[in-house]
Amino acid sequence: MKQSTSPTPSVVSSYVASRGQSPLPPPANYKKNCLSATTKSYKYLRRLLKFNQMDFEFALWQMIYLFIAPQKVYRNFNYRKQTKSQFARDDPAFLVLFLVCLCVTSLGFAWVLGLNIWQSISFIFYVVFVDCIFAGIIVATSLWLFTNRYLRTSSIEPDVEWGYAFDVHLNAFFPPLMLLHFIQLFFYNWLISKPWFISNFLGNTFWLLALSYYVYITFLGYNCIPHLKNTRLILIPLPIIFLFYLITLIISWNVTVSFIDFYKYRVY
89 and 41 in contact (C-beta within 8 Å)? Predict the structure, then answer.
């Protein structure tokens, strides 16, 4: 009987070791056959209407922890990079819940403003498509260009995904949304709208917290990417925001009242 000439496992292991290669497959983030950005975007958008495939429970967990421990949310992004070779979300559940929250809180805002039904619809469309999506695209694109151009440790490191930059914007936008479009509304008519110092203090403090949340969570989003350097530059707006906050109190400028007047001007 003819003996098999296939090499034994020990021979294979010795050969692999002699070439400095591992017999195990490379980690997901080192695979060469990663999906293109277009393919990832197509798969993401295709799942937008498939609610039975979305993990809403996990998306709700992320929203809660964006308030109390945003670092834990970004640990999941790192895990996704290792397992699915991308930082950006592949499940649109967070986006769907985010848009639902945005529409519901905007309805409450419209009620406080005393808008009629058509003005309320116009207001919701303006908030969703201009304040959130359009402004988010501008901010995400600007940070995407800035981080890829100036913060990468070397030119051979992979680019920051644009989809991830937009995810960071959504993460950072959610706490300010809840503070300014929901919690603040309970204080507006009977306190914040009054011409008192405590009114200015409370209204402007809401804005201080909201903007600080946005900057800090944005910083966490880029700081968790291992091949980025000097990400603390993203925190530069924080002292500027605090200085602006002190100036508004000194000159008795109620930012919330001005913001609401601006919203009324847009829909009337």
Answer: no
Three-class secondary structure assignment of 188-214: HHHHHCCCCHHHHHHHHHHHHHHHHHH
Nearest Cα to 172, choosing from 117, 202, 135?
135
Structural domain spans, the chain? 38-267
- Alpha-carbon distance of 142 to 10, in angstroms, equals 53
DSSP letter for each residue of 95-152 = HHHHHHHHHHHHHHHHHHHT--HHHHHHHHHHIIIIIIIIHHHHHHHHHHHHIIIIIB
Tell me the HSE value of 161 on the side-chain side, using a 13 A CA sphere. Answer: 23
Tell me the two tokens of residue 72. Answer: 């834990």
The pTM of the full predicted model, rounded to 2 decimals, is 0.80
pLDDT digits (tens, 9 = 90+) for 203-246: 999 999 999 999 999 999 999 888 899 999 999 999 999 999 99
Are 166 and 245 contacting, i.e. CB atoms less than 8 angstroms apart?
A: no
